[in-house]
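Section 5.1 Outputs to date
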Amino acid sequence: MSMIVNVLWPFVPAAITIHFARPDLHVWIFALNYIAMVPTANLLGFAGGELAKKLPKVLGVLMETTLSSVVEIVLFMILIHNDNNNNLIPVIQAAILGSILANLLLCLGLCFFAGGLRRNEQVFHEAVSEVGSGLLLVAGFGLLIPSAFYSALSGSATTGTFTPEELISNTRKISRATSIILLVAFLMFMWFNLRSHHSIFDEVLEQDEAEDEDRSKELKRAKLTFTECIIAIAIALTCVCMSAVFLVQEISYIVERGVPDNFMGLILVPLVEKAAEHLTAIDEAWDNQINFALFHCLGPSIQTALLNAPLVVIVGWGLGKDMDLNFEIFMIVLLVLSILVVGNFLRDGKSNYMEGGLCVLVYVIIAVTTWYYPNPHEGTTNVQIPMGEGHGH
């Protein structure tokens, strides 16, 4: 499946060329760079996977998910750097939640569906699913708290208990403190996986490798050397960064053309940045390596919630931008419900195509709803309340 994506490589030079040759064609630049990110992210995923095989099991898988989340970190950093007057902050906030939703509902759903087509059910190890779903729930509530604080008190801010400015300032401080705490949780997660409990995960993943129904083909396939992996990663990262920069520069023009901010962040951005990861995970589920697939769905979700989101808040703080974890309540409710739904499917340690299909359908419902959700600057959101006024707008 990943090899088919390579037919998109011609889009990469085309996207770079059109950016410099015709900077006025905003829709074309956006569309071509959007497509160009898929094969470059795919190469990054493939080279990361080859590099992972040269490292100890768990370290390899974590290294792979970290490399693929580099695309996301690059996108977030470019978005926060290019932000003027908070115009891109709603897109970043939606992209943080959208990234987790895409992994949990779309990617995991497609993995369950693809794996379930060839067999009645797939059984995965409780160690992977328990740690994953438990951590995600903690991360979800961590991300929810600043939004809940703001929403609960936004009514009081307009009745004179304290000023809207104070509420916004306090929410930002809570977001920054929460970000630092979530980074500590991420370090604990890494220590748990790499040091204290790595033997459990090693055992699970080795057992998965033994069950790989594509193993015979795998052995015949030529692999990249260590040097080739590094070169491929360097080329892929350069192309991904260029596409990300060009893509972000066009977002405001695309939003002006009628694509809602929330749809852009929650659906469009995560789909392209996660494309390579999703292909890898679905391929693994198809080959009956369901624990590997779970790692590739839950790992990046945890990484987005515990590392990438706090990182963008802290970098925004350093750059003097108003980035915080005060998300749309509508969006955060979607996230927490999705985590609960997926946690419920993971609890029995088995999956089938119906569970997968249901997850994907829920994702489609979210995509449709998000298209009709108004933009934050239209005053419908908890992200902005009237500064120094006595009423809402």
